Amino acid sequence: MSRLSLLVDLASLLAREVDLDALLGTACERLAAAMHADRASIWLVDAERGDLVTRVAVLPELPALRLSLDRGIAGYVARTGEVVRVDDASRDPRFDPSADRATGYTTRSMLVAPIREEGRAPVRGVVQLLNKAGGPFDDEDERYLVALSSQLARALTMTTLRAADGGNPGLVLQGPFNRIVGRSAAIASVYEKIQLASGTDATVLLRGETGTGKGLFARAIHVNSRRQARPFVTVDCTTLPAQLVESELFGHERGAFTGADRRVPGKVELAEGGTLFLDELGDLPPDIQGKLLRFLQDRSFERVGGRSTMRADVRVVCATHRDLERAVAEGRFREDLYYRVRVVEVELPPLRERGRDEIEALARHFADVYAQRYGRPAPTFDPAALAAIASHAWPGNVRELEHWIESAIALAPDGRITASHLPLRRPRTQPERAVSEDGEIRMPLGLSLDDAIERYVAAVVAACDGNKTEAARRLQVGRNTIARALARRESGAGPSSRGPDSIAGGPKSRRD
């Protein structure tokens, strides 16, 4: 591979959320070939231990090495940020021969560059080349390695590595997947299952509370599978009106229904060769569940209004926060579909079960991300802010924590996050009991018609155990009408311009 091709290829890899080790391993292999070097390795700074660790090394004798920052040429480069080129390593006093002694390898020439972005960014690690064929490394080699190391730095910035606090320019190593932070025991078992599932085409069911990262893990399965170069297509089952779900999934022919003026492919067709992610599967309308079951069984389907049976080579990943077992028992979810999607089941732990250290690591990670996005100084946390973060129950999980930290960064122009920058935690009140024991919905006199409608809709949804589709069926309106009424009630925004007739008028309109 040419040097230019390597830079282009690495840039394309960085655009995808690939496994970090796989990315660095590929970079090492191709770098050694392009530079005519015998070996290449990447060392990362581990701030917790204050040393260097080989995340990837083309050293079959030793799959992993550690080196103090005050030892060796790699330690010198990590400490000073300088590029070092050595023609004869044995004559350089900075050279540490311990690895050579352990492996029997003889290091002669070396080219070592810091991994960091432009400017005064911290050194995140070093990349080194050993023993160039045909002679020592030259100026052109050095310029190329510096350009490539800045790309590697961007890769690390986008992954689950975060800058440490204080003056230590290191990183704390986190999880194996890009954009997913965590290394607690609770999340480690998830990583293992995701890695194993990625190597197959088995249907995966991701389960967990809202905000636990099901979408991120679904994408991690895709980008670490053989289908990574093909589409990753998402269907959010909570946002689709019941009458449009089938068309959204399987497409429709021209004239299939009013307004269908052309043939439209569905998400299944668009995901050909790739992965179809069905988010919040538990909200899929009952009449579509049978058609999804057929597709999962033999990968065949028909467009709405069509007569030809079509097939699609698609890997399916599903996610839900619903209690599917209860839904099956109550007849709201097909039992045969339940067993079909539960081939590989992965339970994502809520944030509160991942431990204080992990919550703090996530907070620092999000602080780094949003400080860079909003042009803030390197963020730090006041002890009171960390205490407030640690004491919160996080009902919204990682998503809630991310929004907290984004808000704090926006309100802290100097980068120092205090407890006053965190969202006010209002005491949770007991929800009012809208439905009596005998099934009657009771509301006080004096409500406006709009407020009465919104309360009535909320009560019916509660009576349906949160199933908006069932509530819409009972009220004879579209599911989107239910969602809008609930959103207005939760936000206190008041009625929409459609007015109360969208519900009070009875039958649902075409727009729903």
Descriptive account of the structure:
- With 512 residues, the chain is an alpha/beta fold.
- It folds into four domains: 3-172, Beta-Lactamase, CATH 3.30.450.40; 185-347, Rossmann fold (3-Layer(aba) Sandwich), CATH 3.40.50.300; 351-421, Helicase, Ruva Protein, domain 3 (Orthogonal Bundle); 449-504, Arc Repressor Mutant, subunit A (Orthogonal Bundle).
- The protein is 40% helix and 14% strand.
- The chain contains 19 helices and 17 strands.
- The protein has helices at residues 3-14, 20-34, 72-80, 98-103, 139-158, 185-198, 214-223, 245-250, 267-270, 286-298, 324-329, 335-341, 356-373, 383-391, 397-411, 449-463, 468-475, 479-491, 501-504; strands at residues 37-46, 51-57, 66-68, 84-86, 110-115, 125-132, 162-163, 171-172, 204-207, 232-236, 275-279, 300-301, 310-311, 315-320, 344-347, 380-381, 416-417.
- The strands form five sheets. It has a six-stranded antiparallel β-sheet with strand order 3-2-1-6-5-4, sandwiched between helices.
- Helix 10 crosses helix 12 and helix 16 (449-463) packs across helix 17 (468-475).
- It is globular and about 90 Å long.
- It starts with a helix and ends in an 8-residue tail after the last helix.
- The model is unreliable at 160-174 and 494-512 (pLDDT under 50).
Counted beta strands: 17
> What is the CATH C-level name of the largest domain?
Alpha Beta
Structural class: alpha/beta
- Through-space gap between termini: 55 Å
Whole-number count of domains: 4
What is the topological layout?
Layout: H1 3-14, H2 20-34, E1 37-46, E2 51-57, E3 66-68, H3 72-80, E4 84-86, H4 98-103, E5 110-115, E6 125-132, H5 139-158, E7 162-163, E8 171-172, H6 185-198, E9 204-207, H7 214-223, E10 232-236, H8 245-250, H9 267-270, E11 275-279, H10 286-298, E12 300-301, E13 310-311, E14 315-320, H11 324-329, H12 335-341, E15 344-347, H13 356-373, E16 380-381, H14 383-391, H15 397-411, E17 416-417, H16 449-463, H17 468-475, H18 479-491, H19 501-504
Parallel strand pairs: 9-14, 9-15, 10-11, 11-14, 16-17
Antiparallel strand pairs: 1-2, 1-6, 2-3, 4-5, 5-6, 7-8, 12-13
